[in-house]
Write a structure and sequence with these properties.
Length: 433
């Protein structure tokens, strides 16, 4: 990748940006042509969901400067919120100067559940399940033989007993968990098929009645971690009153605050998910599944807490770490059929689901770094409002060059809101006529 073509990327027009990506060898000329046709065809969309009417579009942008495990990435992000892509790129730029993100990706094991109730003898049921574990795994794999042929399949079985809760009036549940290697797929359909395939046998072994058989989106066996280490000289901003050491210490305190206060933690994690959801969506993966699992993981201690941690290294550097479940696929779902997801795959240039996980978790950490750095120094609004001003200008009815004119004046206005934007637009239109 020749990065010189990407200089002042944000100042280019969309066409110039795509040409720059071709010149930088990130995209091919064919990919460039493809960008003119990323829309879902009616016929395809009508087969994806029920009662299809029309497509609802989101902007697709590129976050720059990501150096993940010593490889450069341009990251596709589908999002309607201003500032997110700018913040990701700015955070990644500083982190790249500090040797980039290092990631650790666990084995990609998904979990399926069968919930059994009215089990007459829990001890006997549990011992039967353990005794016949190999038969259960065999039946599960017979229910979805193609994933076994590919080298994956059900690998292990665990039993959990959820005690009755008289206060909530819930009965005892015997939960059977199946661990399944779904390889390059997220695996919802694979697992649901397997779980339904073993339900009758589990009822026979336990004497219980199944309530349901389904994948768990709490993918605690499919974790992705990104770490970055930033020297303090990279934290000092040219015109800021804060030294690099002060920025580091305040950022660490911001992380601690989000660890102890759930009200703050939710917003802290929302910032992380700004980046994660946008890449997950652009890649054609199920962002609802990722979000649900991430927020559950943030509550694993019994309290909702920050997903990331920030601390001081022995040499004084700032160390950031983010871990969350990331069961994304590189195949399946809409990944292979949605033209924008296929384009995203080429732009990002990932070879496997693990590599996609590595980039996504790094985007979450970059996003968190940028947000916290702004919050503990100049505040979030300064950077955010630049783009917000453009959105307000457009909402007020500005078009063409008037958008920039209204936005510029809005940034200096006492009240940055729609009413002011409309007033400014009226003045500008009057002056221009
Ligand atoms: P799919 O069923 O669409 O695709 C997975 C299939 O891809 C596999 O069964 C396999 O089929 C094929 N495949 C090709 N190459 C590979 C490979 N290298 N590794 C693994 N599989 C491969 O998707 P998933 O089962 O992943 O399910 C994801 C979809 O399920 C998403 O659209 C999601 O929204 C949806 N969903 C989510 C739920 C949830 O999160 N709770 C619940 C229900 C659905 P073969 O071997 O036969 O070729």
């Amino acid at each position: 990748m020749d990065k010189t073509y990407l200089d002042k990327f944000y100042k280019k027009s969309p066409t110039e940006r795509k040409k720059a990506l071709v010149a930088a060898d990130v995209l091919t000329a064919d990919d460039f042509l493809l960008t003119h046709n990323l829309h879902l065809a009616d016929e395809l969309a009508d087969n994806m969901i029920e009662n299809y009417l029309a497509n609802y579009e989101l902007p697709l942008g590129a976050a720059l400067n990501f150096l993940v495990d010593d490889k450069d990435y341009i990251v596709p992000m589908a999002i309607e919120e201003p500032s997110v892509i700018a913040a990701a790129s700015a955070g990644a730029k500083i982190i790249a100067q500090a040797s980039g993100f290092k990631t650790t990706i666990s084995d990609r094991i998904m979990i399926g559940q069968v919930a059994l109730k009215e089990v007459p003898d829990l001890t006997l049921a549990k011992s039967n399940l353990i005794q016949y574990k190999q038969d259960i795994l065999k039946k599960a794999n017979e229910a979805h033989p193609s994933i076994v042929k590919r080298g994956g399949g059900a690998t292990d079985l665990f039993v959990r007993i959820i005690e009755a809760d008289p206060e909530a009036a819930t009965p005892v549940f015997l939960m059977v968990h199946l661990h399944v290697s779904t390889l390059e797929a997220m695996g919802a359909n694979i697992i649901n098929t397997m779980m339904e395939g073993i339900t009758a046998y589990l009822e026979e072994l336990t004497g219980g009645t199944a309530l349901m058989s389904i994948l768990s989106n709490y993918a605690t066996e499919c974790l992705a971690t990104a770490v970055c280490q930033i020297p303090v000289h990279l934290l000092k901003r040219p015109h800021s009153n804060y030294s690099g050491e002060e920025v580091r210490d305040r950022l660490i305190e911001a992380g601690q605050l989000a660890y102890v206060d759930p009200y703050r933690a939710v917003t802290h994690n929302k910032g992380i998910m700004n980046g994660i959801d946008a890449v997950v969506l652009a890649s054609g993966n199920d962002w609802r599944a990722i979000s649900a699992g991430a927020h559950a993981y943030a509550s694993r201690s019994g309290q909702y807490r920050a997903l990331s941690t920030w601390k001081k290294a022995e040499n004084g550097d700032l160390i950031g770490q983010l871990t969350l479940p990331l069961p994304v696929g590189s195949v399946g779902g809409s990944i292979s059929i949605h033209p924008a997801a296929q384009f995203s795959k080429r732009l990002l240039g990932y070879e496997s689901a693990k590599e996609l996980e590595a980039v996504i978790v790094s985007v979450g950490l970059a996003q968190n770094f940028s947000a916290l750095k702004a919050l503990v120094t100049e505040g979030i609004q300064k950077g955010h409002m630049g783009l917000q001003a453009r959105s307000l200008a457009i909402s007020a009815g500005a078009t063409g060059t008037a958008i920039e004119q209204v936005a510029e004046q809005l940034k200096r206005a006492k009240n940055m809101n729609l009413a002011t934007a409309k007033e400014l637009l009226l003045n500008i239109t009057a002056l221009n006529n």
